[in-house]
Amino acid sequence: MGKTLMDEFPSIVDIAYREFKKRRRVMDIMSRDIVYVHKSTKVIDAAKIMGERHIGSVVVRGDVDYIGIFSERDLLSRVICPGLDVWNVEVERVMSPRPLTIDASASIKEGARALIKGKGRLIVLDKGFPVGFLSTSDLVKALPGMEESELKVRKFMTKSVVTLPPEADVAEAAKVMCTKRIGSVLVDSGQGPYAIFTERDLLSKVVARGLPFEAPIELYASKPLVTINADASIHEAALTMAMKHIRRLPVTEEDRIVGIITARDLVEAYAK
After folding, report:
1. Phi, psi (5° rounding) for residue 233?
2. What residues does each domain of the chain span?
3. Structure pTM?
4. Other C-beta atoms within 10 Å of 7: how many?
5. Among 82, 88, 95, 79, CA closest to 202
6. Do 22-145 and 5-19+147-271 fall under one CATH topology?
7. How many other CB atoms sit within 10 Å of the CB of residue 192?
8. Separation between Cα atoms, residue 141 and residue 135, nearest integer Å
9. pLDDT tens digits, residue range 199-253?
């Protein structure tokens, strides 16, 4: 069973609060590294760029202006699931068109609500010009510095946990994530989950490197597993995600995994 962040850094909540408490606007928490690709770019090339830059999406530019966003979720749901060829299909065909936008001066609360409504990343505009992205990960980084809450992880976690054995191949994992519309599966050798295979792993460790889908997920899963207790606060969950640079936390109770909470779950809790 993995260790929680609080086991390792018992006073880190206070440090994070001082660091994040001044952040109140979308412009303060957005990701400023916008990467553009042309609409004719092949999916494999976009995936390589995303993998090299450690980013989850790129803006797709048309002949005049931007026309969409291509993200790791699009890679899974619009390319891998329908069985398209990443080497030949162009991003224009599989991108999310008409991307939602938000003004850089909007409040963090407004950003959270827009993210939940839009179900994806937002392009941040300043005087009509794209200056950044806003994602659930960006929101989670800011949550520890917002007002404290006694809301518990158990209230917002998903109780259904999907596991696969370590010998399951990447193709099977991708199929399961597609079918169940989830962004990760836990890896369980029979003695409890010990690793997690996510959309980001699929993008950066497999597709971006042009590796075959027949390899076992054991090779590419992220480990050790970072967990959180069901009775921890949503602020502690947000802090753990921010410090560990992850977006999903298996939830434990009495040393047993009973659910999973994601960055989107936390943003939804905050937005409400």
Report:
1. -80, 160
2. 5-19+147-271, 22-145
3. 0.85
4. 9
5. 79
6. yes
7. 14
8. 10
9. 999 999 999 999 999 999 999 999 999 999 999 999 899 999 999 999 999 999 9
Nearest-angstrom CA–CA distance, 103 and 107: 9
Contact 147, 218 (CB under 8 A): no
In 3D, which of 171, 162, 173, 66 has the Cα closest to residue 121? 66
SS3 193: strand
Tell how strand 101-103 and strand 57-61 pair up: unpaired
Burial 117-146 (b: 16+ CB within 10 A, else e): eeebbbbbbeeeebebbbbbbbbbbbbbbb
Smallest Cα–Cα separation from 37: which of 22, 47, 51?
47
Angstrom distance (rounded) from CA 78 to CA 131 = 26
Q: Which CATH architecture has domain 22-145?
A: Roll (3.10)
Q: Retrieve residue 48's tokens.
A: 């390589």
Please, is 247 exposed, middle or buried when counting C-beta atoms within 10 Å of its C-beta (0-12, 13-18, 19+)? buried
Six token digits for residue 208: 């971006």
Find all residues with CB under 8 Å of 143, minimum gap 6, and list them: 234, 235, 238, 239, 242, 266, 270
Q: What is the distance between the alpha carbons of residues 158 and 140, in angstroms, rounded to a whole number?
A: 17
Predicted local distance difference test score (pLDDT) of residue 147:
57
The edge-to-edge listing of strands for the beta sheet with 101-103 is 101-103, 122-126, 129-134
Dihedral in degrees, nearest 10, Cα atoms 157, 198, 172, 57:
120
Q: Return the structure tokens found at 202.
A: 């699929």
Rounded to whole angstroms, how far apart are CA atoms 116 and 132? 18
- Name the CATH superfamily housing domain 5-19+147-271: CBS-domain (3.10.580.10)
